[in-house]
Amino acid sequence: MAPRGLPIQKSRIKIRQSELLLFSSVYSGQIGAAMLAIWQSFLVVVICSLCGRCFGQTQEVTTKLVGKNRSELKHGYGNCQRLYPKREPTEQLQLPKLKSAEPLFYEAKLGNAKDCTFTIVLDSTQFDGDYNLAYADLNNDNILDGTSECLAVELGDGSDKDIPVRVKFEIEVDGQPVPYFVDFQAFNYLYAENPLHKIQANLEKSSFRVAELSLGGRLLSVAILDLDSNGLFNDFEKGKTFDGDRILFDFDEDGYFATRDGKNNESFPLSRFHNIDGKWYEIRPSRDGRTVRCTEANPSMGTLECSPLASQVRLYQEGQTLDLKFQEGKTAAIVGKYKLSRLQIKLRGKDRYLRINEEVPVEIVGGQVLQRKFGMGIQVRPMLNLREGEAFPRVKLEIKDSEGFSYTLKTEDWDDASFGVILLDDNGQAIAAYDLLEKEGSHLSLPARYDGKYKLRPLLDLEGLDASFQDLEVEIKRGEIVLVDE
Length: 486
Prior knowledge:
Layout: H1 17-26, H2 30-51, E1 58-62, E2 64-66, E3 80-83, E4 104-109, E5 117-123, E6 133-136, E7 150-152, E8 165-173, E9 176-188, E10 199-204, E11 208-215, E12 218-225, E13 246-249, E14 267-269, E15 273-276, E16 279-285, E17 291-297, E18 301-305, E19 310-317, E20 320-325, E21 330-334, E22 336-346, E23 353-356, E24 360-364, E25 369-371, E26 378-385, E27 394-400, E28 407-410, E29 419-424, E30 430-435, E31 452-460, E32 467-469, E33 472-477, E34 480-485
Parallel strand pairs: 18-25, 26-32
Antiparallel strand pairs: 1-17, 2-11, 3-10, 4-5, 5-6, 6-7, 8-9, 9-10, 11-12, 12-13, 13-14, 15-16, 16-17, 18-21, 19-20, 19-22, 22-23, 22-24, 23-28, 26-27, 29-30, 29-31, 31-33, 33-34
C-alpha cells in the first residue's frame, strides 16, 4: 500500500501531448532537446509534490547468505522454531531401518511450497539405547537417506551447554530452491501439552542475509533476520520481537550489529518504512531474502501528543511498526490506524519509568495533532487481589491515568525504589510500612493485635509527575485482611 498523501489535483496539470510535441519542434536543435528534458523533469517534480510521495532513487541489491557456520551468528538473536514429538509421521515417507524401540517424529515448516513440511526422526543406534542420531529430510523429497541425511546428535537438557548440530535444508520459496542453515537440538523438557517422552526439539539460530545499501548519503551494511523462523525474510513484525522478521543497520560501521544497546540500537522491526539519518526509505526484502529493494519515500505524517514526561512509544499496524521518541510530549508518526504500546513516562532517577500495560487503538491523521491524556492525571491506590487457591488477598498498587489506562513501574534499582503501603490507624498515624512485589502483590504479615479498621496508603515516589494518591479502607481480623470498604 503506497504512502498516503495529498490527492493529485488534475485541474492544475492540463498539458497535452500535442503541446509537448509542438514545444519540441520549435526547439529542434540541441538547446531545444535540453530545454525539453528540463521541462519534463519539472513536470515530474510537480506531480511528485501534488501526490504527496517522493519517487526517489531505487536500489535493488543482491544479498549474501551468512550463517553457514554457527561462528558467523554475531547479531545477538536466537530465533527458534519449536518441534514437538509424535509417534507416527503425518506424511508418507520412505524411511531407513530404524533401530530405536520408540523413534520420535518431528515436523518443521519452512518456505511457502504447498508441501513445506520437513520431517526429522529421532532414533538410536540400539533398540533400547538413548537417542543419539536423527534422520532429517533435508531436501523434502519424503525420502530420508540413511547416509547423507543422518545426523549424529547429543540429547541435551535445554541449557546453554547443549551441543546442537548445524544442518542445511533446501527449502522452496516461490518455486525456487533456497539454502537455509539452522541448528537442530533435541533435549529433555517437561511440557504439559506434549508429554510424550518429554523430549522437545528446536530449529534455532538460522542463517540470515546481508547486503549494502546507500542510506543517508553513506553505504551501510544491512542484515535481514528470519526471526519468526519460517524460512521467509519479508514478514513484517507484528508488534513483538520474533513475531515477524527483523532488520539491522550497522550505523557505526564497526562490522557488528548492536541489538541490546538502547543508546546505540541498530536493530528494528521489519516494516515498510524506515527512517535513516532523517530520511524515509521503503525497504522491501524479497520472500527468499536474496534481494532487497530500497526506495526513497515521503510518507504523510501526523503528530501524537500526550504527557510532557513521555519518553518513547511503539505504534504498530499490519506492515508498519514505529518505535518513536518524544520531544516535550510530542512525536511525529506516519499516518494510519495503529495499536499503541510500550508508552514510557519518565520518572526521577536512573532508568525509572511508568509503562502502559494496555494496547490502545489510535489513529494518526496527516497534518493533524492527536492529543491524548496518556500518562497524565495519574492516580495511585492500593487494591486487593484474591488469587485462585489462596485464602487471603494480596495487596497491590494500582496506577492509572485520567483515561483509565493502567501502568507498571519499571526500574533497574528496586533497592532505591519506594514501592509499598503504609498502614494508618483511625487517627491517621502510621503504625507500619510494607514493601510490595510489583507484579504479584504481597500478603501482609500483620500482628494479631492489629484487629480493627485501618487505611492503606500508597508508598510510591512519583516526584515530578502529576499524580494523586488514594487510601483504601480495610478491616483486619487475626492478622489478616478480610474486608475492603470500596
